Queue: 3 jobs
Job 1
Amino acid sequence: MLVVEQLVKEYGDLTAVDDVSFEARAGTVFGLLGPNGAGKSTTINCISGLLTPTAGRIAVSGHDVIKDGTAARRSLGIVPQELALYEDLPAVDNLRYWGKAYGLRGTALEDRVATVLELIGLADRAKDLPKEFSGGMKRRLNFGCGVVHQPKVLLLDEPTVGVDPQSRAKLFDLVETERNSGACVLYTTHYMEEAERLCDSLAIIDHGKIIAQGTVAELKAQLGARDALQLNGQFPDSATSEAIEGLREDIADLEILSQAEDSLLLTLSAASHHLPKIFAAISGAGGNVTETSLRSPNLETLFLLLTGKELRE
Ligand SMILES: Nc1ncnc2c1ncn2[C@@H]1O[C@H](COP(=O)(O)OP(=O)(O)O)[C@@H](O)[C@H]1O
Ligand SMILES: [Mg+2]
């Protein structure tokens, strides 16, 4: 339904998107997970036709976005990262505007606008102006504008940034509704929890490059049976890392994911079994552990392991 092949986008010397390829199927949510500046919006804007790629090929519903842009855009719904609302136009008229832009007229338009108002939970605020809305309400209306024409491929660019928990839950429901009705949804986010919760498959992107791709289960499997071990306390800089490196003869898959003066995040298999050795190494390096927590690895752990930095830096 959506095919991106070897997409490259350069801004002068900067390669914002660097050889990105993925395919997303109908009735699924495909995620692009990455920190700020990773190239998510640039990818979305190349798909929507807002930006012209430097190289590569993109097809939406079988239509090439460059050679056959008009047909490609007919299948697309776009919910941009920056709100695209007419603040002084009632909510219902914002929806009508986008419906008309995609060719809906008459009762088909009115019926669909009414349905969308219900869906996004704004039926009782239809005549009110977006400028009086909360951030979450604006996000929901922004979403509604992207789906009035029932697109086959829906592009969602960080749709939950700056919204309250209730609107966030509502937006998740809306994404699932679109997927269940057969749409192909491309969902970008820098929130690992959202990707894990919503996406059938995803690509992790950093500095314009895909560094891992697959289903959530496949990506977690890249971590093997490893646990994430969070230690708090005091960790003298190089002495601690040397001491931990020294344990690798014993604990083959031990790695330091992040290290600060007062915290240390490690990944290894059967962590609880190795705790005494780790504590001994740390105190041998002049440090000490005041708090220990063990958790199953998640996508954040994988991102740390692959890039050496946190998603939200
Ligand atoms: N119009 C532009 N001109 C120059 N550089 C840009 C422009 N838009 C984005 N960039 C740069 O491209 C990179 C990717 O940006 P973007 O796609 O917005 O990332 P994301 O959406 O993942 O946060 C960043 O380094 C950003 O600063
Ligand atoms: Mg962005």
Job 2
Amino acid sequence: MKHLLLFDIDGTLVKFKTRRSRSIFMGMFLDLFGVETNHSDLPDFSGMTDLSILYSIADSTGFDRAKINRNIDRIWKYLIDEFRPISTKENLELLVNADVLLATLNKSNNITLGLLTGNFKGNAYLKLSVYDLVKYFAFGAFGDDYFDRNSLPPVAFGRANKLAGENMYSFLNSIIIGDSPRDIECAQANNMKVLAVATGLFSRQDLMVNSPDIILNDFSDIDKAIDALESLGVGL
Ligand SMILES: [Mg+2]
């Protein structure tokens, strides 16, 4: 049986060494709209889609969500222009063996790789490009598709099926791989299995609260990661 593996990016494949995203989003509100924000106006970004981050900041500062929607292309352009110069190996860490795991999985004819990330599409591929990981992901569902992460899996299935040329992927044979409680919730809301990995901001204990199907500390042991996927029914 074929499987679709949907990877999160931040905290799962790569991770910023410092929390640069927060100041970039604050700078965007100031530079494009003249709106001053405080750190307390910002939510915890982990697992949130970029669109939901924008709405959340808007709500806590009394800014109109409709104005976000009207200016969304300008906003994505501003953000990617700010993220581009800092998306370097100095600032962005490749999580241990993430590249080796992807290379291994990519060799299997029984596995299709896709993205399911809160990053808007441009930023998702920008981050992946730092470590030459773009080649593994022909498609995905992104933080500019919907504000609600739980709405993203059907988008990913649709794109996977379009690329395959037949209706072969659904919640039944797709698995989410991510580092935050929101990845786990997203899988569970869509009746999907989920492999959680504790390389982001959340510990194994934090992730256990949400009862993922399986948890790994990291991908340092590739055989262990493959075994974990096999325990979820994925055959290489
Ligand atoms: Mg993440």
Job 3
Amino acid sequence: MNLRHILWPDVDTGLWNDWRWQYKNRLKGAEGLFKLSTLLQKDLSHLSHVIKTYRWASTPYYISLIQDKNLLQDPIGRQIIPSPHEIQKQSYPQLSLDPLKERLYSPVPGLIHRYKDRVVLLASGICASYCRHCNRKRTWKKPEHLSLTKHALNKVKAYLDANPEIREVIISGGDPLLLPFKSIKRVLSVMRSIPTIEVIRIGTRVPVVLPMRITDRLCRLLHKNRPIWINTHFNHPREVTKEASGAIEKIQLAGIPVSNQTVLLKGINDNHDVLKSLFCKLQSIMVRPYYLFQCDQVCGTLHFWVPLSKGIEIMESMWGDTGGMCIPNFVADLPEGYGKARLLPSQILDMEDGKEAIFFTYDKKIVKIHL
Ligand code: SF4
């Protein structure tokens, strides 16, 4: 099935590769759902009440990566097509829309200060494509808004000036690379004007869902504001397309290292072969697999959760099966704001300092080593 030819048969390559066209022609809301349903001759009307609670939009490019007409069976479709499960009464009554307590750790609007030396700046309220597993679904209840106001940015700057122990700002959202060029420039220049901010990290899914957004102009801006790190969000090997790889290469040629955060998602990537293929593909385009996240316990995402033990089993099976550069840290962001916890089990079974340690090897042998 080639969805590009079914849904956008008359769009020429020039337009298709123009990020503004892609953004403007996102399928979104009830109208987009209707168009999808008509062209695919599938009844999607049962999803209209889901998108009243959690908004829906995605780019033609990303939608065109879906290969299975049964949209929720496809690893790309499952990430973006709303599911009735999102609004089903949850079996865990304690589920929250903000289990990480981000609002509690927000000293000024738009800023999250949980760890001592770094903060998250929520610079944008929009995404090119809304991932159904997103842990900030709470923000989707408001209308899409572009960026922090100048006034809010000034408050953020005042807070960062007053807290010199903060050395790193993680610019996130929504997707900060969807902001208008001058807003991105403003945010970066404000961050660069604070002498204690050493490093800027940008969290973006644009290389995955709208790779055309990575323009030469944007790369020049990023280059000028180094040191910058980009952290992106590939979840499945089919996302590592020619277009996505091209976008990543442009960023890298601008002198910006790229790493990746994957979320472990039921029915999408919860098995050894898919994850191994994803991490190896990322390594081959020089993107470091940085984190594999246990899906956060956010209301409306229960259908994506994978048992902890299964995640550990998959990661254990990868150790020794592929190189360490292809194996990310497996972590959970603990509810109630307790921060990240590493989940990969230790391979040390017992040890006595200066004498010996007993290890469980990658190929399941138990060995005693004098260290
Ligand atoms: S791109 Fe990031 S912020 Fe946007 S919906 Fe996906 S996970 Fe959430």
